[in-house]
Design brief:
With 323 residues, the protein is α+β, with helices and mostly antiparallel strands. The chain has ten helices and 14 strands. Helices cover 35% and strands 25% of the residues.
């Protein structure tokens, strides 16, 4: 059971590095515990009966940027206890959905923003419910991070090593406070700092637009995990990182789980992590369409079977988690 527990929780640490989003409502310091060993002893006493754990990872621009609460990064992570594997599935931001408890439609990336208006005590509720409806998976944990939080975290590990497949040219990349800045990155190997890495992952000025961005987001996840363990960063560092990102991170994960997360992440290699995205292609599950949003004609994506018809997508998630 302990080995399964470590594998289950490992998924979260692999990705917490990328989608560090919610601010914990309490602070923590090493001095509050007698030692790291005592923390481990407390956490190891917990018993988990779940056979699988599903995570929702969300990335937002943050209050310094235009459209601060749009979740332009949406990734569902799932741990399969039958084979110890982890799957990461990206959901396009332009997927058109019906707003929960409403007949109105919107893009899925707007649900968190709507939640802040209509469900201020639990703004993530709308998007959690919709993700469960789309995928058929119960979301156990969620993590939401903004741009500045992610930049800080990447800098704390000394940047990341990324191999860029094609030149990236973005003359007017959206910056803070409604500004723009040029962003260029040549094909090849780079060690990127936080500012550069986040722009690499957010850039969609390419042939496949948001689908290219989705691929870069998953590439950054792998690079960040590799960097963390290549540098032999320890539990004290992880706890400090949580404290430093206090104002940029939102999650329902308990802080006492950190030690076991850290141990667990060391047990999973990249070969046990599979990534997917819902795609538009002859064999894909989505299709493009035009739709009227706010009185304006907008580009949109819907399931291939039609608006709100998720049976094929649910089967896709079921098959991944049963392999």
């Amino acid at each position: 059971m302990l080995k399964k527990l470590l594998l289950i929780i490992s998924l979260f640490l692999v990705l917490v590095a990328i989608y560090y989003s919610l601010a914990f409502t309490y602070s923590y310091s090493i001095q509050e515990k007698n030692s790291l060993e005592s923390i481990n002893n407390i956490v190891l006493e917990k018993e988990f009966s779940l056979k699988s754990i599903n995570f929702l990872f969300l990335g937002i621009p943050g209050k310094e940027y235009a459209a601060p609460w749009l979740t332009d990064t949406i990734i569902v992570g799932s741990f399969n206890s039958n084979n110890g594997s982890v799957s990461l599935i990206s959901i396009p931001r332009d997927l058109i959905i019906k707003i929960p408890d409403s007949g109105n439609i919107t893009k899925i990336n707007a649900l968190y923003s709507l939640g802040k208006t209509f469900s201020p005590l639990e703004p993530i509720k709308f998007i959690k419910e919709k993700i469960t409806e789309i995928t058929g998976l119960k979301i156990d944990y969620y993590i939401l991070i903004d741009v500045i939080g992610l930049e800080r975290f990447i800098d704390s590990v000394g940047g990341v090593n990324i191999t860029v497949s094609d030149d990236i040219s973005y003359p007017r990349f959206p910056g803070a406070n409604y500004s723009y800045e040029p962003f260029y990155l040549s094909a090849g190997f780079h060690n990127l700092n936080g500012h550069e890495a986040v722009r690499f992952a957010r850039s969609r000025n390419s042939l496949r637009g948001d689908f290219d961005r989705i691929q870069r987001q998953r590439q950054l996840i792998q690079a960040l995990k590799n960097q963390i363990f290549a540098k032999n960063l320890n539990l004290q560092w992880l706890i400090k990182s949580y404290k430093d990102l206090n104002d940029r991170l939102i999650s329902n994960l308990e802080l006492d789980d950190l030690p076991i997360l850290f141990k667990a992440a060391r047990l999973i290699s990249n070969k046990n992590i599979s990534d997917y995205s819902l795609e538009i292609s002859p064999n894909g599950l989505l299709k493009e369409t035009d739709i009227i949003l706010g009185g304006v004609n907008a580009y949109a994506i819907i399931p291939k079977k039609g608006l709100e018809k998720y049976s094929e997508i649910q089967n896709f998630f079921k098959d991944i988690n049963s392999d």
